[in-house]
Amino acid sequence: MALPAHLALEIVTPDRAIVHDSVDEVQVPGSEGYFGVLPGHTPMLAMLQVGQLWYRKGSEKFYLSVAFGVAEVMPDRVIILADIAERAEEIDVDRAQSALHRAEQNMATRDQDLERARVSLLKAISRLNVAHRARTRG
Amino acid sequence: MPSLIDIRRRIRAVKSTQQITKAMKMVAAANLRRSQERMLNARPMARQIVRVLSDLAARVDPSTHPLLAQPDLSDGDQVLLIVLTADKGMCGGFNASIIRAASNYIVEHRAQEVTLGVIGRRGRDFFRRRGYPTRFELVNFTRKPGYEHAQAIAREVIAAFTSRKADRVFLAYNEFKSVLQQRIVINQLLPMPKAHFEQGDPTAMVDYLFEPSPQRIFDEVLPRLVEFEIFTALLESAAAQNAAQMVAMDNATKNSGEVIDALTLTMNKVRQAAITREIIEVVSGAEAL
Questions:
Q1: Residue range A7-88 in CATH 2.60.15.10
Q2: Which residue of B has its CA nearest to A72?
């Protein structure tokens, strides 16, 4: 079977379709760890965790911060259904920074809502990382 | 006959009302555009989630999941009816018709035990005043519903369903057909209609990797489908509400225009009558000399 040359990447959240593109490579934050997808990947369904996702088009890489959802991988397409997804250039660094501080404080003081604080901490870290990538690259 | 000054005052009052209704119409039109856009933006997700689910359903036995169990609707069942109303009035028959539909539903299903989940202040006030049994109420976001609101509702719904406090969940809302037309729909939310899972071609794929496991992924995707269905209903309802308000305010503006015309006519007649009377007085006074 001939391998497909590209992947049709769809990243959608409830309020919009963020990416609808033909790409060469994708890396996804799966619940069991990051995994890379090249054209011709075996069919797969994976849960997502909070983290950064990138996709490569030619020699250019694009970064996104995503949180929760599922990914469906087919040899010629990748569908990401995420609760939250943001492009690197859309991220408000100041807001992410203050969310990070808040989450750290919440973790330090209130232990009853530890899980929620942990999740917002992870989200803030992932958003900052992604925003950082976009800056250093450009 | 009212005096000239009274009529002038009334015209002024109606004019300022007209200005307000005109402004409200404009605001509603802008909101309508925005909520229509959000409906369009939600479409891709709707398409993809169904696609993923049908791929999944071709490989996992759907009947094992608690959200898919299909109990028959029999007498004495507990039914949860979620009613989407608006927070504010000024939108014609929008709230009245959805509330009427919900009340009719309760009357028709007297054999079942219907409890309500009310969204929107209008509905909450109505059902609270009449003492309907209510499971939850959520207000103050119907104009701009966010996904987190859909999640909050879905949490309540799924909790009620899995704890067997509700055997069946329905969602009643105003569907946005066009600017001039809203249609009330009552959809079954849970258990999920089988139709979602009947397509999909099991022939295409031989091996399919699951990470972590098919069951876990199913557990993850199904609640999301519930959330998403609620979310689209919230968006439809918001668009319908804005459309209804726009039409209602347009009518109000037209009506006040008519009132102003009628009042202006009366005012002119009164003024003319006064002038005529004065002339007659002058003439008859001169004749008397």
A1: yes
A2: B52
